[in-house]
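Page 42, continued from yesterday. The earlier attempt failed because a stray header line got pasted into the input along with the sequence. Redoing it now with the clean sequence only.
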Amino acid sequence: MKIIAGLGNPGQEYSKTKHNVGFMFIDALAEKLTVGSWQEKFNAAVSQTVIGTDKVLLLKPLTFMNLSGNAVAPAMHWYKLKPSDVIVVHDDMDLPPGMIRIRTKGNSGGHNGIKSIISSIGSNEFIHVRIGIGHPLPNWRVNDHVLSRFSPEDQKSVQEAIQKLIPAVECIINESADKAMNKYNPRRVKK
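This time it went through. Structure tokens are written below.
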């Protein structure tokens, strides 16, 4: 059993904002897998599916971003999972819009949803799948940036990243996070 948690804020007013790329990913994955019904459980919207031979719980916290751990931890404990069985998809301001990065562990990087999960499960050794949303514009506060919508150009880049991440997350589950990192993380160009 694995959990794929996409972070975001519940409610229509947040649905297309930068902070909700995790929800956008879960929705795209659910559509590709033709996932059935959703239910409210563990302070989240959840649906079960199968990827390869693994049962997978798709999870969208309904706790608002800063309390994401209050949804991930109860689900993890219910299924008696290790942190390494959890994949968390979230936005990252340090990556340009549409860039992706997969890590097997990591700190919060200032992301309050990730801070909440680390605090709630007592570990940072879950799989982090980051989708770039870029830095705030000059004189913008972080909140204004993450709760704003993408420009049409950035929206296109993010949608392409989400489609690229579907096989990447399937690779994490079917093979390993290391294989997915080698295959899907951006390469550094040597000078």
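Notes: The chain has one domain: 2-184.
Reminder to self: strip header lines before submitting.
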